TrEMBL record:
Stated name of the protein: Kinase-like protein
Residue ranges of domain Protein kinase in the record: 1-201
Gene3D superfamilies xrefs: Transferase(Phosphotransferase) domain 1
Keyword presence, Cell division: no
Species this protein is from: Rhizophagus irregularis
C-alpha cells in the first residue's frame, strides 16, 4: 500500500516534539473522524487506532495508516501476540478477552463500538499529548478499564470552552456499555460543530477568490500599458534604423564603385 509522503511523521512524533495548538487538534481530530467514517462506509474496521498510526502531511492533514490488523465487519478478529502494543486504546469488552481465557477462546468480536472506544482514546491522547495510562502496569490498566475507570482530565485553571466540549466528545466515545456509544457519524457531526462554532479555519488557507480576481484584473490592466511602452520604444528607434541602413547602403555602393 502506497501513502502520501508524511512530512511531519506520525501524530505521536508530532505531539512529542511540538505543543500543538487547540485549533489544530480539533482540525486533526475531525479529519481523522472523517477518514474513519469512510472506512466504516466500506465495511472496514481498522482495529489499531492510535496516534502512532496517523501520518501527518506537510499541510497538517492526517492520514490513517497501518492496516495490518484491519478487517471487514464480519471477519474474525486475528489473535494478537503482544497486547502491550494496543491495550492502552482497547475497549473493555476486548480487554475481557485478555483476562478471561474462556472468552478468548470464543473470540469476542471487534465491533464498530470497539473502534469508537479506541477513537475516543486517540482523542484523549491527542488532547493531552501523551500515551494513555503511560505510568500504569499491564494488569493495572486491565483492572482499571474493566471496572469503569478511564484516563483523567487534568484540566488546568486556564481551560476554555473548546477544551471542555472536546472532552465531552471523548466521554461519549468511551462509555462502558458498547450499545450506548455514539456512531461515527454522530462523532463527526459533533467535531464539525466544534470546528465551526470556534471559527477554526484550515491550517493552510487558500487564496481568497477576490484576491485572485484582483490580481487577474491587475494583469489585464497592465497589458495595455506594456503595449504602449513597446510602441513608443519602436518609434524612438526608427531614426536609428534609417541611419544604420543608410550607412550600409553607402558602403555597398562605394564598395562597388572601386571595383
Amino acid at each position: 500500500m502506497v501513502f502520501e509522503w508524511a512530512e511531519h511523521g506520525n501524530l505521536r512524533e508530532l505531539y512529542l516534539n511540538n505543543n500543538i495548538r487547540w485549533d489544530a487538534k480539533i482540525s486533526i481530530a475531525r479529519d481523522i473522524c472523517r477518514g474513519l467514517a469512510f472506512l466504516h462506509s466500506v465495511n472496514i474496521l481498522h482495529h489499531d487506532l492510535k496516534c502512532e498510526n496517523i501520518l501527518i502531511t506537510e499541510k497538517m492533514q492526517p492520514k490513517i495508516s497501518n492496516f495490518s490488523l484491519a478487517r471487514e465487519f464480519n471477519a474474525v478478529t486475528l489473535p494478537i501476540d503482544n497486547f502491550n502494543d494496543i491495550m492502552h486504546w482497547l475497549a473493555p469488552e476486548k480487554l475481557e478477552c485478555i483476562k478471561d481465557s474462556k472468552k478468548r477462546e470464543n473470540i469476542n468480536r471487534y465491533t464498530i463500538q470497539c473502534e469508537i472506544f479506541s477513537f475516543g482514546m486517540l482523542l484523549w491522547e491527542l488532547g493531552f499529548q501523551r500515551k494513555p495510562y503511560e505510568n500504569m502496569t499491564f494488569m493495572g490498566i486491565l483492572d482499571h478499564v474493566l471496572n469503569g475507570g478511564r484516563e483523567s482530565f487534568d484540566i488546568k485553571s486556564g481551560s476554555n470552552s473548546i477544551q471542555e466540549e472536546y472532552f465531552a466528545i471523548i466521554k461519549l466515545a468511551w462509555v462502558q456499555e458498547p450499545s450506548l456509544r455514539p456512531g461515527i457519524q454522530q462523532l463527526f457531526n459533533l467535531l464539525q460543530e466544534l470546528y465551526e462554532n470556534h471559527n477554526i479555519f484550515p491550517l493552510l488557507h487558500p487564496i481568497p477568490s477576490h484576491v485572485v480576481e484582483r490580481s487577474q484584473n491587475n494583469v489585464q490592466n497592465t497589458i495595455p500599458s506594456m503595449v504602449i511602452i513597446q510602441i513608443f520604444i519602436i518609434i524612438l528607434f526608427i531614426p536609428f534604423y534609417f541611419i544604420f541602413f543608410f550607412f550600409v547602403f553607402k558602403l555597398f555602393v562605394l564598395g562597388h564603385s572601386y571595383l
